[in-house]
Amino acid sequence: STGSKIQISVSADAAWADAVFAVGALSQIVKDGKLQESAFATAGARAVSARTCAGVSKEGKLVFFAADGDGHYGAGISLKEAAAEMIAMGCVQAVCLDSSQSTTVALKETGNTACSVVNHPSSGSERLISNGILFYSSALSYEPVGLEILPARPFVISGGGTLTLSCSAVS
């Protein structure tokens, strides 16, 4: 009844004893470097939408991917297309964290004092969410050792299409 005290006990399998970070996901879309066909069976998985994905390469490199899907800046992609992108970026394991309006990427670029949204959220602006993933660096500065140009794969532009490339310093 209202106001009654309850006790909640939580435990985890011993395999998780050394975990320092865990995240829930909609579905595993890449396993052992292969598409997880069972993840693409639902109508929601086949629909084109904004997508937020995370993965890991065989070298242990973390990879995060966000695809716009607001209809103006990007039509969105299916879950299977997102999985193919993660494999193309070298992931051997990948999950879809979320889709649609919560796909938002914000960052504080070098020289700026505040974060700004750098993608185009489906709802037109940032959406209130209950969680997120934050990356930060405690480095005061860094020496760039190279440039990274994205997309880093071959592409074809046809019929008046355009492609925006981004370039950033890599340390």
Strand content: 25-35%
Instruction: Tell me roughly what share of residues is in helical segments.
Output: under 10%
**Which structural class do the helices and strands define?**
mainly beta
Low-confidence stretches: none
Shape: globular
For the report, how would you describe the main beta sheet?
A: 5 strands, antiparallel
Q: Please report the distance between the alpha carbons of the first and last residues.
A: 57 Å
Order of helices and strands: EEHEEHEEEEE
Biggest sheet strand line-up: 2-1-5-3-4
Count of discrete alpha- or pi-helical segments spanning 4 or more residues: 2
Oligomer: single chain
**pLDDT average, as an integer?**
80
Number of strands: 9
Query: Radius of gyration from the CA trace?
Result: 19 Å
Care to describe what's here?
By secondary structure, the protein is mostly beta strands. The chain contains two helices and nine strands. It has helices at residues 43-46, 79-88; strands at residues 27-31, 34-35, 51-57, 62-67, 91-99, 106-107, 116-117, 146-150, 166-170. The strands form three sheets. The protein has a five-stranded antiparallel beta sheet with strand order 2-1-5-3-4, covered by helices on one side. Strand 6 and strand 7 form a beta hairpin. The chain is globular. The model has no long low-confidence stretch (mean pLDDT 80).
